[in-house]
Design brief:
Number of strands: 26
CATH class of the largest domain: Mainly Beta
CATH topology of the largest domain: Jelly Rolls
Structural class: mainly beta
Bound molecules: fe (ii) ion
Shape: globular
Number of helices: 4
Order of helices and strands: EEHEEEEEEEEEEEEHHEEEEEEEEEEEEH
Distance between the termini: 57 Å
Strand content: 25-35%
Number of domains: 2
Radius of gyration: 23 Å
CATH superfamily of the largest domain: Jelly Rolls
């Protein structure tokens, strides 16, 4: 057992019946945790945030604005998240780094300059509230706000992944390699692209675009996987490993619950409502079965966040829109595509399990099987805001073949 003698730690073999090591210890700080701490701004940790606009904004000398880090439970080491304010009539510092970075504009207007090498061709594009854009790996970029009001951006990065692996921030911020495969000098590099194609893994709707001018109002194709009438697209941006999608539930409808492991954070961009999340081991009816104390809830409006699986292991999560408009959300995963975290060899047969019902071998809970508390509460809550449930009552009837 190690022990402290004269202020010096010693180690010797355990005696009979003892085990080596401390036995109990705190979760260590990762390199990325140390990096966040060194930046000297707050780190918000929790299951969700009702509205990122309410997070404290503290002077952030490294970035040249003000901000807060966000590390929702379950995302530790999986990807990085923060809000940054770009000062009115100002700009953030020029930077480049080996990690990927995407931005959602929470409020404000401005522009971004992106270039791969000193003196090389420079892209400049404009953004506004609701714009989503990506910075290619190791490209120089400068975020500019020429207006007389501050702008607030939500950033998502693969910084934890890189930092925890490499352990040297200087290499990450000062690497001369030019990733020409992630950048193009072509004038249309930041031209929004609305064309759809199937994503190469699951065949879901994908759009290759490095800029989405308005995530709140852009066209979304029908998907039907989460609720009747559900729409969804995956923007594939600057060759990133960072995986994300945009989705929308119809007014008066709510999603089916489904379970998977952590990484995904849902970003509410339109509508308002709440999410329930609970460990898979509590089953499909956590209220009925006496596990209500294990269910977590986050209420949000734009731009709110919730960790889909805050416990790390598989958690169910279910989203309820109580506003009188469609419910639009984005989900950010970092470099953790749901199909790459299964631990299976290439080519092994996979199923779209989060979109398939538990009765089909998936993890989605069909409406007829869900905890009755959910429907009652949803109908009562939505009635208060003058809206009405548009869920088809037939969805709650057990099919004859079950
Ligand atoms: Fe999910």
């Amino acid at each position: 057992m190690p022990h402290d003698m004269d202020g010096v730690l010693h180690w010797h073999e355990p005696t009979r019946g003892e085990r080596a090591g401390f036995g109990k210890f705190g979760q260590p700080q990762s390199d990325y945790d140390k990096f966040m701490e060194a930046d000297g701004i707050p780190v918000f940790r929790g299951i969700g945030v009702s509205k990122v606009q309410d997070l404290p904004l503290v002077d952030w000398p490294r970035m040249g604005g003000r901000g807060s880090y966000i590390q929702l439970h379950g995302t530790e080491g999986k990807w990085g998240n923060y809000v940054v304010e770009v000062p009115a009539a100002g700009a953030l510092n020029v930077e480049k780094h080996l990690y990927e970075e995407i931005y959602l504009v929470v409020e404000g207007r401005g522009s971004t300059e992106v270039w791969l090498e000193e003196g090389g061709p420079k892209h400049v594009f404009e953004w506004q509230t609701g714009s989503l854009f990506s910075i290619p790996v190791n490209a120089y970029h400068r975020i500019v706000n020429a207006t007389n009001a501050p702008a607030l951006l939500l950033g998502g990065t693969t910084a934890p992944n890189l930092m925890n692996l490499i352990g040297d921030a200087n290499f990450i911020f000062d690497c001369p390699y030019a990733f020409t495969s992630r950048f193009s000098p072509d004038g249309d590099f930041y031209k929004p692209n609305e064309d759809l194609e199937p994503d190469p893994i699951r065949g879901l709707a994908m759009r290759r675009t490095n800029l989405v001018p308005d995530v709140m109002n852009c066209e979304l194709p029908l998907d039907n996987r989460r609720s009747p009438g559900y729409r969804r697209v995956e923007p594939f941006m600057t060759g990133n490993k960072f995986y994300l999608w945009l989705g929308q539930h119809e007014t008066g409808k709510y999603s089916k619950a489904h379970a998977h492991t952590s990484a995904a954070v849902l970003v509410c961009v339109k509508g308002a409502g709440y999410t329930y999340t609970w460990p898979e081991e509590c089953g499909v009816n956590p209220w009925k079965d006496g596990h209500a104390d294990r269910v977590e809830r986050v209420d949000y409006e734009p731009v709110g966040l919730v960790s889909a699986a805050p416990g790390g292991a598989r958690w169910y999560h279910q989203h309820f829109n109580t506003s009188a408009e469609p419910f639009r959300l984005s989900a950010w995963f970092g470099p953790n595509h749901p199909s790459l975290v299964t631990g299976l060899p290439p080519g092994e047969k996979q199923i779209d399990y989060t979109a398939m019902d538990v009765t089909e071998g998936g993890t989605a809970i069909p409406y007829w099987m869900e905890d009755p508390y959910l429907r009652e509460e949803f109908e009562a809550t939505i009635a208060k805001s003058g809206a009405k449930s548009r869920m088809d009552p037939a969805l709650y009837e057990k099919p004859d073949d079950q």
